[in-house]
Design a protein that fits this description.
single chain; about 425 residues; Rossmann fold; 2 domains; six-stranded mixed β-sheet; 12 helices; 19 strands; Lipoprotein; DUF58; lipoprotein
Amino acid sequence: MLTGRTAALLALSTVTLPLWPSPWWGVVVLTAAVLALAAVDTALAAPLRAVRLSRDGARAVRLGETATVTLGVHNDSPRVLRAQVRDSWVPSAGAPSRVHRVLVEPHASAALETTLTPTRRGDRPAVRVSLRSYGPMGLAFRQRAGRPATPAWRLRVLPRFDSRRFLPEKTARLRTLEGAQVTRGRGQGTEFDALREYVIGDDVRSIDWRASARRSDVLVRTWRPERDRRVVCVLDTGRTSAVRVGDEPRLDASIDAALLLAALASRAGDQVDLLAVDTVVRATVSGGRHVLLPRLVNALAPLQPSLVETDFELVVGEVLRRERKRALVVLFTALEPGALGEGLLPVLPRLAARHRVIVAAVHDPLLERMAEPSGDPYLSAAAIRTLGERDRVRSALTRNGVTVLDAPLDVFPSRLCDAYLTLKQAGRL
């Protein structure tokens, strides 16, 4: 293929046309000469079959951060490779629109770095590498679809996990509950821990009179919160999870809160499982005795909302089938009257009879601002009606023995962990 330099050379050669006896013959001869030079230039270009491509670099990156992927260009031919390389990725991978120009000596290699700043979770694949091999004069180049073969590469974009900033605070509160860190006294719980001497300020109801009589001293029982309990995080990936709350989908906010809860429960010695469901099971992670946060993050990274109505009968059936023992089931969904009133409420008693249930929903503050009377009266009336329907759904869930958490996006993970710690302290898991 010809380059712009060939056209420029041909245009430049036309200045000699007045010197020719016949201008038409001059055009023919000059054009033939330039095309001959271009053909020679093409023949001297490094062949594409002798060029190999390889990749190295990051395989995973957290959303909002940058990753570097290196493209290796290997020249196995005896000619110098003068190349123009374009490394194309899917738009959401955040790759810059850049063309690399490289010169690779015979039997040598060059490394081209691409900095990626993804804008979405999930797997972001490399699409295609386009390579042009130029001749030494730059008059023509070789390019062929599929040559050289594009090396497969997939960058997994993990959830942000911004809520990890709450983890030190929640862990400190957990230590206080367990009695490992004394503030005003020993943490209360439901499992006996040890006996110790009475100090001023202790609850007299915790005195062990029999042990005190044997020791001739006043001893009190100390307790610790329950351990080795089961926590099941259920993510609703139906159509309501695609609604944007603030700057991100509701599903991303639920993932962030679920990761924080899983990290805290794991440190508390509880077993954490995760389930993502709409009309089918999208993801499942069984934590066992120690949930590994990297496994959870990796499983949740490619999860995307599905534009279907969630089958809550399937959700309840899966939870009951997987969890034979009593567990804390946290259902991340939306307080939408249509979805919950017709789908969840009819099957909720079966789930609440066996497990402790929390329905966790992200509250959209836009509804409250829309409900203010100072704005559009029709918009305000619609917002007030929506808030009233949410209150009725919340009351219906509460009557079935379900704890309802409806919190703004910025404190949603923190409030969820507070609810978990409150239940743990009261021995109600």
